[in-house]
Amino acid sequence: MRILFLLFTLLIINPLLAQDKQEDTYVLITNVNVWDAKGKDVVKADVLIENNLIQKVGTNLKAPKGATTIDGKGGTLTPGLIDMHTHIMLNGPDAFYSGSQHYDSYTIGAWAYRDMNMLMDQGFTSIRDIAGNSLGIAKARVNGVIEGPRIWSSGPAFSSTGGHGDAGPWNQLPGETNQPHELMNFGVADGKDEIIKHARWNFRHGAAFAKIMAGGGVASEFDPLEIIEYTQEEMETIVSICNDNKTYATIHAYRDDAINRAIDAGVKCVEHGFLMSEETIKRMADEGIWLSLQGYVSTVQFAAAAQVPWFSPEQVRKATQVNEGAVQMIEWARKHKLKIISGGDMFAENTPIAIKNLTIEKTLGFENWEIMQHATYNAGQVLAMSGPARNPYREGPIGVIEEGAYADVIIWEKSPLDDIDNLEIKGNIKLMVQDGKVLKNILD
Ligand SMILES: [Zn+2]
Asked: Is-contact 269 289, C-beta < 8 A?
């Protein structure tokens, strides 16, 4: 009986399965200067894409049968850009307090989709969404239900009561929730038990890593920059659940004490860090801790914090503090060769100018190729830290042009490696391929 069944399987079902298998698709890109994102060099080469991955990079590649061949017209081919600090769900007129006053989560989702596509238009084919409940949208994106940048979502960020993610009203009672909390843009959790429950909820819903509000924040109401927001034990608890999920935690923090406590607890990445001492920066460099850099917000917008429409006087004071530390911190980060990724933190009304977080780095002493690397190769290293279980895109590396990497590529007419400001030229993106699909081609 079993043999008969096997025969049936082989004869009847297999041909049906074979019929279902999709044909391989090929895209061959020729006549381009390829920057693989690993260093300074740009080389003349062809790039062959098979389905959603890069199959080969080399000279005189032959087009397989049925391949689409694209003449790159001498443009510069780079990986698609990656913004490592977005908040697509903190949106609309209430921005940071998304949904607390005038809109519901459906509307916020619609805005998020609009903003995802605004980011795509600027060249961001991937984002790391780091606080805000983008877990459902990330799932829809990975399943191909919607288009837009690939999303590595932290889901709701961990915040203590009164911490950077506590967006409730001042007169809230202990244990009471509020609308921002119910939307799960932030997860207010105090103590070991609440934290464990919250962490497991995040990973149940597809979180790729954890974001911890470790120290005071600018945009929030109840937390001066000087405070530490989680105890050592609480931070270690989050990290231990991340370790169990083979992924990592990153923190929001500005100052030495919060950052050192978090590194002691096993955190691998620091967002902001603008008020750090040189000693802490040295420690990060020695221990291989990543810095996620917001050059534009810290050095340009916080220099004129009073003009941010939704900042209170206290928020203006905090933003000014950050601005005063930023340039010095970045100089030390360069001096000690800190591992850097670019994370704009440019949400809501800032989304259309998110690319400025890269172009501003030129004024902070970085070379063009280094800036590009922050948003490609380096970003890919951090995205890979989501590990075998929680990385939603684990077929190959991302942010690099090499065999086996995801085929997310851009051809720029004017190379950002010659001048990073070329990123801001409208119409400079002549070709955009994401996951092997040609989304834009205006080469002709
Ligand atoms: Zn942020």
From this structure: yes
Domain boundaries along the sequence of the chain? 2-79+399-441, 81-366
Q: Which of 317, 296, 310, 320 is nearest to 98 (CA)?
A: 310
User: pLDDT digits over 118-159, tens only?
Assistant: 999 999 999 999 998 999 999 999 999 999 999 999 999 999
Whether residue 289 has pLDDT greater than 80: yes
How far is it, in rounded angstroms, from Cα 345 to Cα 360?
Answer: 14
How many angstroms is it from 435 CA to the middle of ligand 1? 27
pLDDT, tens only, 223-256: 999 999 999 999 999 999 999 999 999 999 999 9
* Residue 293 pLDDT > 60: yes
Taking the centre of ligand 1 as the mean of its atom positions, its distance from the CA of residue 130, in whole angstroms, is 7
Q: How far apart are CA 400 and CA 373, in angstroms?
A: 9
Q: What angle do CA 89, 169, 222 make, to 5 degrees?
A: 85
287 pLDDT higher than 50: yes
Distances (CA, A) of 398 to 55, 90, 142: 14, 26, 15
* Lookup result for tokens 């470790």: 214
Beta carbons of 214 and 235 less than 8 angstroms apart: yes
Joined together, the tokens standing for residue 224 give 């001066």
| Statement: residue 173 has pLDDT above 50 | yes
Distance 211 CA to ligand 1 centre (A): 10
The 3-state DSSP class for residue 246 equals coil
Its CATH class, for the domain covering 2-79+399-441, is: mainly beta
Give the Å distance between the CA of 110 and the centre of ligand 1.
20
Q: How far is the CA of 227 from the centre of ligand 1 (A)?
A: 17
Angle at 275 between CA 274 and CA 280, to 5 degrees: 100
- pTM of the full predicted structure? 0.94
**Fold for the domain defined by 81-366:** TIM Barrel (3.20.20)
Distance from C-alpha of 341 to C-alpha of 378, rounded to nearest angstrom: 6
**The residue count for the chain:** 444
Residues paired with 58 in a beta bridge: 46
